[in-house]
Amino acid sequence: AGSKLREVFDKINNLLSGKPVQTEGQTVSVTQHPQGLEFVCYKLAEKFVKHGEGEVSFHHDSAFPIAVVLSGIWELHPRVGDIFLAHLHKKCPYSVPFYPARKEGTSVEEYQRMLGYEVHDSKVEEQDHFLKRMSGMIRLYAAIIQLRWPYGNKQGAHPHGLSYGWRWLAQMLNLEPLADVTAMLLLDFLEVCGNALVKQYGIQLWKTMFFIQKYYIPRIEAVTSAGQMGCLSRLKSFVQKCLQEKEIPLPKGILTPSFWRT
């Protein structure tokens, strides 16, 4: 509910502003320790990324309430936004976007970690689980860049707005595609913020969609084996449908004005 979200936002904002906050039966304040504020900024940013790789990866709609709170906090407390990006880029290099190359002397295990895989006791996580986590983080990022906290003063620009999404898309299409990962990330990104991008960039975005269909999808196909076609097929039909209907649909779960009255 909108009212619940406001409560959460106010509590986080009060904590970061140095006000005493009630939690689990006790009162806490960042002023209780010289590094209190820095610690809270760090842990909070880390928590938002964890929401992306956990909650959002399983419930796509949850990207929007989480993102709108972070967007508002980022506006008032830029440090949280900076640390959030640092955590996000480390956990999901594709959010830069960047495909790390393996350097000489780097162990397989270390390289898997650089690519975003979780490695425990020399065991690398399953590909499906890895893709799900990356998908959740990209969806959260795509939601953040288009949302503003509705109760802010809106005087300045969005601290990390749609221009960053446009840049991400352009850079992504300049990279050599990877099997599985590239198709999934492009689809997630376009599903979540394609509608917002088309409103902002119009014909430029349609040119990009045409480029994806005509030139980039065949490049993804060239590196994709028969067993990895699922994501690619979904990306293909999404792009084709958008171009045919000349519109990118609103994402599922977007927060409507009526949400804030709940």
Q: Could you describe the 3D structure shown?
A:
It comes from Neodrepanis coruscans (wattled asity). The protein is mostly helical and 262 residues long. It has a single domain (1-261), classed as Serine Threonine Protein Phosphatase 5, Tetratricopeptide repeat (Alpha Horseshoe), CATH 1.25.40.510. Helices cover 61% and strands 4% of the residues. The chain has ten helices and four strands. It has helices at 2-16, 36-58, 63-76, 78-91, 108-114, 127-144, 162-172, 181-201, 203-222, 229-245; strands at 21-23, 26-28, 119-120, 123-124. The strands form two sheets. Strands 1-2 form a two-stranded antiparallel ribbon. It has a two-stranded antiparallel sheet with strand order 3-4. The termini are close together. The mean pLDDT is 92.
Task: Give, in spatial order, the strands making up the sheet with the most strands.
Answer: 1-2
Distance between the amino and carboxyl termini: 5 Å
Q: Secondary-structure element order, as H and E?
A: HEEHHHHEEHHHHH
Count of domain modules: 1
What is the CATH C-level name?
Mainly Alpha
Could you say what the CATH topology is called? Serine Threonine Protein Phosphatase 5, Tetratricopeptide repeat
Largest sheet: 2 strands, antiparallel
Structural class: mainly alpha
Would you count the extended β strands for me? 4
Shape summary: globular
How much of the sequence is in beta strands?
Answer: under 5%
GO biological process, one term: poly(A)+ mRNA export from nucleus
Keywords: Coiled coil, Cytoplasm, mRNA transport, Nuclear pore complex, Nucleus, Protein transport, Translocation, Transport
Protein name: mRNA export factor GLE1
Function: Required for the export of mRNAs containing poly(A) tails from the nucleus into the cytoplasm. May be involved in the terminal step of the mRNA transport through the nuclear pore complex (NPC).
